[in-house]
Amino acid sequence: MHEPSDGDLTPIVRERAYFLWEEAGRPYGREFEFWARASHEIEADRRAACERHQAERSVAR
Fold it and tell me: What superkingdom does the record give (predicted)?
């Protein structure tokens, strides 16, 4: 998956929300639930990656 360089995570959130919706059996009327969950997961992933990167930089010093 390619991250947009301008910081717009919309395409990534859209794709993650779609897969979450698919996994849940494509329920009707819950698009905001899946969008929010996808957004939360992506932000958590990005924070974790940032923390790992900072930890690696600290160890390298």
Answer: Bacteria
Tokens read off for 1? 């998956």
From CA 24, how far away is CA 34, in angstroms rounded? Answer: 9
Note the pLDDT tens digit of each residue in 12-61.
Answer: 999 999 999 999 999 999 999 999 999 999 999 999 999 888 888 787 77
Q: How far apart are CA 34 and CA 38, in angstroms?
A: 6
The whole-angstrom separation of Cα 8 and Cα 13 is 10
SS (H, E, C) the chain: CCCCCCCCCHHHHHHHHHHHHHHCCCCCCCHHHHHHHHHHHHHHHHHHHHHHHHHHHHHHC
